[in-house]
Amino acid sequence: MHLVAFGLNHHTAPLAIRERLAFPAETLPGALAQLVDSQAAREATIVSTCNRTELYCATQQPDAALAWLASYHGLSLDEVRPYLYQLDAAEAARHAFRVASGLDSMVLGETQILGQIKDAVRVAERAGTLGSLLNGLFQKTFAVAKDVRSQTAVGASSVSMAAAGVRLTEQIFASVGELNVLFIGAGEMIELVATHYAARKPACITVANRTLERGQALATQFGGNAITLAELPDHLHHYDVVVSSTASQLPIIGKGMVERAIKARRHRPIFMLDLAVPRDIEAEVGELSDVYLYTVDDIAGIVEVGQQARSQAAEEAETIIAHRVGEFSDWLKRRESVPLIRALRDEAERTRRNALEAAMKQLAKGAPPEKVLEVLSVQLTNKLMHPPTQALSSGSGAAHDAQVALIASLYRLHPES
């Protein structure tokens, strides 16, 4: 059983490709079950965010698991292979450690990804696809991320996507305090972004969501109001800023809807930030005059602010990770020895049981206990010493020398002394 990880991220694939391989949260349990049921993997965890889709699995058929990923999304492997990376055990661990520590993120040192990985692990655990191998990997991953956060300043002064959105807005408008802001969706990302905008005290905050109740619950936190997604066409023109992040598989806002909104606004500019993967806002909207449309990839330059200041901390984090990868590799090697250890103990137990049964029979026949114990001890000694003695007495050359050295080490023997 091999530990492998494969996927794609903002370093290897454009948004147009990432959105085609994304897993909406509600589909993850079924996807995990399907993967394991297909026998392409015995254990599996899927991490799917706006910046990455990654599959960690324990499998005897890495190629089959890779083919499943493409097939699940209705794609051929040839279509996605140029964007994919595949990592074996040690490199998979290193990658997981770096991702959880915020070293592989668009925002160096950002903390949201750690929570997203924890969520992915919980989903896999509930789906019954998180076995001992992946559980060991991710428990180590969480411990490494904690060490990096506590022992380095890698997260200091990081600029999040949420903060970057506010910065972009302030490059277009004089003051957020004079703007009407619309948030589409009511998930964790929208809550985070809304917190940053609310700190600037905009004139109005509205949350549009599929269910009014959930939207209202979030809007209440920021003194705003809520509408349903169905009301968007009638309300869009009221807003200077639109931030969207939903799990919809199809765009929520089309070019025609925005054209009508711009006309009603008499061509006053509108800032739109689409943080969803797949995208919530049609790409063609960006072609319209008076519309400033940004996606998660577009704000990469903004979030690089502070990168140089954190480079030394990142080097320190890489040192911690390198050490922890070595520990994890040692753990994997010990796991590989478990079947051999079990077989060795089973063989010793059979030898003990046979010797004991023979001794009990002799005692039942009235043999002196002292003699029975002597025979028992000699028999056990002979049985247990036969394999190493036979190994020492046979073979030649380098292989024999290696066996001699190994047996001397195992039994802590130093015949030359």
From TrEMBL:
Q: Which SUPFAM superfamilies match?
A: Glutamyl tRNA-reductase catalytic, N-terminal domain, Glutamyl tRNA-reductase dimerization domain, NAD(P)-binding Rossmann-fold domains
- Domain of life, source organism: Bacteria
Q: Which residues form the active site?
A: 50
User: Is Transferase one of the keywords?
Assistant: no
Provide this UniProt record's keywords sorted from A to Z: NADP, Oxidoreductase, Porphyrin biosynthesis
> Oxidoreductase: is it a keyword of this entry?
yes
Which CDD domains does the UniProt record give? Answer: NAD_bind_Glutamyl_tRNA_reduct
Domain Glutamyl-tRNA reductase N-terminal residue range list: 7-152
Instruction: Describe the location of the Quinate/shikimate 5-dehydrogenase/glutamyl-tRNA reductase domain by residue ranges.
Output: 168-301
What other note does the entry give for this protein? During catalysis, the active site Cys acts as a nucleophile attacking the alpha-carbonyl group of tRNA-bound glutamate with the formation of a thioester intermediate between enzyme and glutamate, and the concomitant release of tRNA(Glu). The thioester intermediate is finally reduced by direct hydride transfer from NADPH, to form the product GSA.
* Matching HAMAP family: Glu_tRNA_reductase
Assembly state and interactors? Homodimer.
Per its record, how is this protein called by name?
Glutamyl-tRNA reductase
| Gene that encodes it | hemA
